[in-house]
Design brief:
Elements: H1 14-27, H2 31-34, H3 36-39, E1 43-44, E2 49-50, E3 87-89, H4 96-106, E4 114-115, H5 119-128, E5 135-136, H6 143-148, H7 162-166, H8 169-172, E6 183-196, H9 203-206, E7 224-227, H10 230-241, H11 253-267, E8 270-272, H12 275-279, E9 287-291, H13 292-296, E10 311-314, E11 325-334, H14 341-351, H15 354-364, H16 375-380, E12 403-404, H17 411-427
Parallel strand pairs: 3-4, 3-5, 7-8, 7-9, 11-12
Antiparallel strand pairs: 1-2, 5-11, 6-9, 6-10, 6-11
Helix pairs in contact: 10-11, 11-17
Amino acid sequence: MRHPRERWTPHMSRREFLLRSAGTAIALPSLSAILAACGRRRPEGPGGGEVPEVLIGTPDNPVEQPIFDDNPPIESGLEPEPGPLRVYNWADYLWPKVLKDFAKEYGIEYEPVTTFYNEEEAIRKLQTGELKVDVWFPTGEVVSKAVAGKLIQPLNHDYIHNLEKNVWPSLADPFYDKGSRYTVPYTVYQTGIGWRTDMVDSADILEAENPWDVFWNPKYKGIAGLYDDFEEALAAAAYRLGFDPYEEDPQRIMEAADALIELVDLMNIRYTIDGAYAKLPEGKFGVHQAWSGDMVATWWYYPEGDDPSTAQYLWPPKAPNPARGNIANDCIAIVRGAEHPVLAHHFLNFMLDEKHALDNFSWVGYQPPQNGIDPDRLVEEGYVKPWLKSAVIQKEDFDAAMGVIPRQLAPEEEEVWLQAWQRVQAGA
């Protein structure tokens, strides 16, 4: 088995996009701007029709996405097409062997995965209708606008029995797409703190009044890093200040920006693309903001002879003194106008099978929300190293009082966040 670290491509992987999104958000139109037409009510054509309203749900106010007359689900009882299956995904975010196994089981051909550099590019290409793909992997935050823009088609659950059978109830019926009318969940991940026990005193994280304080602790000046992502970095500062940036006045984001600007002199802070999963194992960082999926993969990146068990992970909502922390998921959807929609439904069901989901997890490092797996099993069967058991996500984590599920920012909110991030970049 080969790991993504052994097969770098010129494409940008999912983790690279998320970490570079600050730059793309300023250099390119924001995702909200690209999809703004999907969210505005405006006359369209001589009949005066209206663009569908974007229904953005929250955990406290879930939404059921509408089914449109001109974008219905496929009928039941159809045979899968002969292919080829065409997949549109982030680079290195689907094990090629799993795709090959699907093709073998169904006796069909498949094309190499078509990749996108960032979600803005993916949306633009899907809007043109010129991209011939069947399956797309969007983030949960953009599902509502993809539905309103009619970029994806509603699902027929008769073909996807593994959804209810195998998937955590909270994600089989997610707040952004109640009833999973348009999407099924793919992976889940938290944003927490990764550190090396030979460079950082664990008590400064585990026993702190607020675990996020470690990034403002001068003891670790020069060896602390945050993700180069405007939402993740600003959210970490907000949680250190004790507020939820997705629920409170967007102008408070400027307070988070000021807190990050403090880190220039206080910590000589660095914002990186690969700090958690690669630079931490190399010893270039002692502590770094970290996605749980990246931490699961850290042991691959330790130099030969070094002790990978020095890598530790904490999701702040599970700290002795809990603080807020992000938790989220990615999805799989079927593109509207897909040439092989029945086959695509079968592929979604295949990916929700426990065996195939775990096979894929063993390569990508990002966990599927499967009912049949738990931390002990993942450790016992070698999917996760024992010292990183804390990076395994449990279904109850989505209900954690201090857990925050990022939602799609409205255009005016995103503008505030981007202005705040520009201040941080100027200050840094």
